[in-house]
Amino acid sequence: MEFSHFPPSEILKPYIRHYYLFQSARATAFEDTVFPSGDMEIIFNLGEGSWSTRENTNPDIELWGQITKPLAIRSAGSHTMLGVKFFPHSAAYFLDDAIGQFNDHVSDLGAILGNPVTQLHNQLLATPCTANASPCWNPSCSAASPVVKSDPSASTK
């Protein structure tokens, strides 16, 4: 299991705390708890594994609302997830919906934003890994290493 994060460009720094890449090659099932951080996140699921919360299996493009209480999750399979972690105040700049409705839920961002985000997800899935890619979300790639590595036991949410 590997978790990496990297900074946004200068123009996005007021809105995005960081991007991250979570990769787990083992198809091990586990349960965990996500604790409140106050941040909203977008997660592009690029692997074959599945996540679920108490509600249901998470969509391919997840919008994590602000978590205000511990949230139990279950994982099965190997994962590759590319995430965008917003500051508590900033996701509202990118969504037309009332932000509070997403609290304590994982929503389908494809259903919320439609075709543009679905096309982006498809492009990410189709992007071949190259030696110049850093980080690379293709689990079989041996390209450049991620910018910052964190403790593998650290939570991605």
Describe this structure in words.
The protein has 157 residues and is mainly β. Helices cover 11% and strands 32% of the residues. It has a seven-stranded antiparallel β-sheet with strand order 9-6-4-8-2-1-10. Strands 3-7-5 form a three-stranded antiparallel β-sheet, with no helix packed on it. Mean pLDDT is 82; it is low at 143-157.
Features:
single chain, 157 residues, mainly beta, seven-stranded antiparallel sheet, three-stranded antiparallel sheet, 11% helix, globular, disordered C terminus
At a glance:
The chain is mostly beta strands.
List the helices and strands and how they pair.
Layout: E1 2-6, E2 16-24, E3 30-34, E4 41-45, E5 50-52, E6 61-64, E7 71-76, E8 79-86, E9 106-108, H1 109-113, H2 115-126, E10 148-149
Antiparallel strand pairs: 1-2, 1-10, 2-8, 3-7, 4-6, 4-8, 5-7, 6-9
Largest sheet: 7 strands, antiparallel
Taken in chain order, the helices and strands follow as EEEEEEEEEHHE
Termini separation: 15 Å
Q: Count helical runs.
A: 2
